[in-house]
Every structure is written in C-alpha cells, then in structure tokens.
Specification:
heterodimer; A: 270 residues; mainly alpha; two-stranded antiparallel ribbon; globular; B: mainly alpha
Chain lengths: 270, 266
Amino acid sequence: MSHIHIPDGVLPVWLWLPGWILALALVSIAGHFAEKTEARRKVPLLAVVSALMLVAMSTEIVPIAYHVNLTVVAGVLLGPALSVIAAFIVQIVLAMLGHGGVTVLGLNTLMISAEMTIGWALFRTLVALLSRTRVRWAAATATVVTLAITTTLLVGIVALAGGSAASRDTGALDPRSLTLANPLGQGVVHVGLLSGGERLVPGSAETPIVSVRRFAIIVYSLGSIGWIIEALVTAWILGYIARVRPGLLWHGALLEHGRHLIGDEVGQSR
Amino acid sequence: MNIGSIDRSATGDLGWLHRIAPATKLLALGVVLATVVVSWNAFLVLALAIALVGVGASGRLDLRMLLGLAAYPGLFALLFAIASAPDALTGGVVFLKAVCAGLAAVTVVLTTPYPQVFAPIQRIVPGLVGDALLMTYRTMFLLLDKFGSLLRAVRLRAGLRGTHPVRSARVTTQALGGLLLYSFDLAQRDFDILRLRGYSGRLRVRATRSRDRRVDAALLGGALAVLAMSVAWRLGSQALNPYSWLLPLPALLVLAVGLIVSRRAS
C-alpha cells in the first residue's frame, strides 16, 4: 500500500507524533551509518532512486486511486539502510507537493521503509530459493506479499486511530465542534446540513472516527488490483535489469565499475 | 504533475508571496496545518480553503495549477472518506482538510525555490540525507523529461497502442527499466561532477531574507489569527457554533480581493 493517503488532522496526535520521532531517529541512525562508508557516492545514488520513485508516484491510475510506487525495486537496489533515507526524502518532497499529509510524514516514512526493506529481504530469499534465472517470479511474489503485509499495517494504523474513543481527546474528532445550532433560530435556514451523527447527545455512545471494517474492505479490494499492477511492473523492471545489467541486482547499486577520474587513477579520493 | 511549471512559478518574482522570507512561509504553513489538525467544524475548514485560494490568487499564482495540485491529495482523501467516514459530513470535512493542507503546502512550493524550502530540513538531518534531498528534486526534472522522451520515442515506433494493452504495459515498464539504468549512469556522472567541484560531504544553502518584514509579520499574524479562531471554536463550540455560517463570509471577501488583485496585475 506504500503510504498513507490520510489527510492532516484525521489521525490522533498520539499516533502521528511518535511516527515522526521514530522516523527521524531511524533516518538519523541510517544517515550516520551510511556516512561511515562511501558517503559522497551515495548522495547522487539516493537522489536518483528517490526521484525515480517520485516519477512513478506522480502517475495515478484514477479509477482505483492507485499509483505505481517502485518501492520494492528501490529496496532491492538500495538495501535496507539507504531505503529508510530514500523513503524519508520521497515523503518530504511528496508532502511539499501536496501529495500526502505533513503530520503523517513520519508514519509514511516508516511504511515505505518497511515496504522497501521487506521487499528487499523477500526478493533475496526467493532468488536464493528459486535461482537467479527466475527473477521475475521472485520479484512478483515478493511484491505481492510485501504489499499485502504493508496494507495490513495500514489497516492496523487506521484501526488504532479510529477504533478508540481516546482519539477524540487528542483532537482527532470532537463531535461537539461539529454541532451546528440553527444560526437564525427556529428553523429559518435549517436544512439538516449537519444532521447525521455529529450532534452530541448526552449519554449517547460515541461514533468512532472511521469505520475500520468498511475501510479494510475497500482497501483490500482496490489495493489487491494495485498489488497485481505493482507486481507486474516490478517483475518486468527487475527482469529487464537482470538481463541488461545483472551486477546492479546481485552486487548492489554501489558496485565499483573501475571508473576513475583523470588525475585520480588510484581512486584515493573515494 | 507538471514540475517544470512548479519550478517556474517558484523562481519567478510574481507577487507579494514570493517576497516573503521562506522561513516565515514555512512557519505560516505550520500554523495553518495546526489549524487543520484542530478544526472539525465544516464551515471553518471550508472558510480556510476559500481563504487559501484567495491568498494564492492575490499572490498571482496560477489558480488552475494551485487547485489542480491541491485536488490530488483531495482525491485520495475522498477515497479515504468514502471508505471510512461514519457520515457524509465527516467525510466532507476529511476531504476539505486534505484540500486545505494541500493548498497551504502547494502555495509555499509555488512561491519558494526548492533549495529554500528544504534548507531548514537540511539543518536537522544528517548531511547525507540533506544533500540527497536537495539533489532529488533536481533529478526528478531530468528523469521526468527523459521518461517523456522515451515514451514519445516508443509511441512513434508504434509501441504504445490502446488495442494492445499488455504489449503497451510491457513496453512502458521496459522504458522505466531503461530510465532506471540511465538514472544510475546519471548518479555516477553527478558524483564525478560533485567531486571535481570539491564536494566535501555537505551542500550549503544560504537562507533568503525577507524584503519587507511588515508583510512577513502580516502573513504570520493572519495565520495565527486563523489558528486562534479555530482553537476558540473548538473550546467554545457550544456558544460559537450558531455563528459558524458567518465564517465563510470573510473568506469569500479574501477570495474576491485576491481575484481582483490577480486580474489587475495581469
């Protein structure tokens, strides 16, 4: 499912704030870990892979509100540590372009990181089991399983947010603020605009912020179409790379191809 | 998503929003987001959306682009609302919240060059992350351009046809694969260029200052006033809700003024 398309202000603060803190902590750890080795080479690499994901995400399949993410492709090429950083970068750019909430940026980073890391681990495991000649099958299977896991994570997050009454105390939904008394009194312009559950009746049971069951049904049904599309795209791309430049898959994107700048033949500045 | 147009809008000197310091705009964005988080009054969120369009218009932004970009998160929010909201009103508020946050974020991006938008984030994250963030945006332009050219070439060779969807999908993904390989070569070239220019592991961005501090203060003051109103409405909802219908009126005034300013300037 890649990332959460939930607007700002829907998820409670107690959920998105730890998401931000955890994401920043992970990015800092991954950043410091990555900086220890070949840091300068990783900057353009991270940039191009993140940009590639952004290019893919900018094309939406309208009827099912889905877009290709290429998270598994990026995860396979970058590995787990750089995946966390790439996920963070992608989410910041998307949030600044209005594509996704700012408050949910931390949770989105964790979701994409999980998707890239799980995708990378599953792909490696499946290739080891099936052999390197079945890259497409491994890629497609890894993608479907990864997306199924992250979609379940997404439903879990929504259930946490919407299923508990505590969310209202933290600002997610306060029915009282939605209650609208007739502004001109005695029904002059009363059109029932706000009728339908938002009025707080003392002693009544609170309505949950979201219907988790309905959300899960829609996400799993529409999402499964997206999983198939993503699996096909991932399989074709990774299959193409395995055929054209297999070193990228088996030795990583930072494989040294023996290139040196003129005047730096010994590669001392690397 | 026409990123070229976004960049042209951000770097041009179109209106008063472009002259405000990026730090102030980011601060105002934070305040507007806080308002979006706090508010669950349908009229208040609607008023905020109208006011934001008005502010964008007065800043001489391309309204079609502004609304188009803000509609993108709105579309996903609509799906979320349909999937999960307990009633139509809550769904509507969820949709409006997404549009408001989108409008605010897009207004900042359309009026601020991207290095200035990312500079504050660059200061709090490790150097590698900050530098990669700055380079990503630029690389995105190059890749979008290249991908467009690749698809055009495939189309001219009859590789993309509506009558052959499977073949078209395969060719498109192969183009994406080609783009991926091109992007790795691009990364290697970028690395070589950075090294030649003495890159030492940190790209520095100098913050742009405000041209008129009074305008900065007005923008921030306006954003804080909206937040204060939203908090007041939340706390005193029982007493204030009967007057909720009044909220869109000043917002419509802002929109009208914005449209007049925009029309006069053009």
